[in-house]
C-alpha cells in the first residue's frame, strides 16, 4: 500500500532542503498552495502529472521521493542515512547507532 503521508513528508523535506517555499513550488507546478500543503501532509493524492511536475521542480529523482515504495531503494537509503549523520557529533552518532540497533533487535524478535 502506498503511504502518501510518507511521500508528502519526503516532498516537504526535499523542498525545504532546496530553501523553496510551498508558494514557489506551487507556482512552478501550476497548482495552488493549498494543494501542495495537502500533498505534503498526505491529505491529497497527487496526480501522476503533478508528481512529475513536483519531481522536476525539486530537481530530484522519483526514487528520492518514492523510495519507500521502490524495491531497489537501498542505495538511496544508504546515501540518505550518510547525509543525516554528516553533521552529527560522535556522541550523537553513538546514541543514534544504539537506538537503531535496539530497534532492529526488537523488530527481529517480533518478526516484523
Verbal overview:
This protein is an all-alpha fold and about 110 residues long. It folds into 2 domains: about 70 residues, lambda repressor-like DNA-binding domains (434 Repressor (Amino-terminal Domain), Orthogonal Bundle), CATH 1.10.260; about 35 residues. It has 7 helices and no strands. The two termini are about 15 Å apart.
Topology record:
Layout: H1 4-17, H2 22-29, H3 33-41, H4 48-58, H5 62-66, H6 74-85, H7 90-110
Helix pairs in contact: 1-3, 2-3
CATH topology of the largest domain: 434 Repressor (Amino-terminal Domain)
Mean pLDDT: 90
Count of DSSP E strands?
Answer: 0
**Percent of residues in beta strands:** under 5%
CATH superfamily of the largest domain: lambda repressor-like DNA-binding domains
Query: Which percent range fits the helix content?
Result: over 70%
Radius of gyration: 16 Å
The CATH class designation of the largest domain is Mainly Alpha
- Whole-number tally of structural domains: 2
Largest sheet: none
- Alpha carbon gap, first and last residue: 16 Å
Number of helices: 7
Runs with pLDDT <50, length 5+?
none
In one word, what is the shape?
A: globular
The quaternary structure here is single chain
By CATH, the architecture of the largest domain is named Orthogonal Bundle
Order of helices and strands: HHHHHHH
Secondary structure category? mainly alpha
How would you sum up this structure in a few lines?
The chain has 112 residues and is mostly helical. It is built from seven helices and no strands.
Amino acid at each position: 500500500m502506498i503511504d502518501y503521508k510518507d511521500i508528502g513528508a519526503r516532498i516537504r523535506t526535499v523542498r525545504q532542503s532546496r530553501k523553496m517555499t510551498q508558494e514557489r513550488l506551487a507556482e512552478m507546478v501550476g497548482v495552488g498552495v493549498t494543494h501542495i500543503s495537502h500533498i505534503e501532509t498526505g491529505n491529497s493524492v497527487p496526480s501522476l502529472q503533478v508528481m512529475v511536475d513536483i519531481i522536476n521542480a525539486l530537481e530530484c529523482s522519483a526514487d528520492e521521493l518514492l523510495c519507500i515504495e521502490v524495491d531497489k531503494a537501498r542505495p538511496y537509503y544508504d546515501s540518505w542515512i550518510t547525509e543525516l549523520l554528516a553533521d552529527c557529533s560522535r556522541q550523537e552518532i553513538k546514541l543514534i547507532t544504539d537506538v537503531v540497533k535496539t530497534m532492529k533487535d526488537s523488530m527481529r524478535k517480533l518478526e516484523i
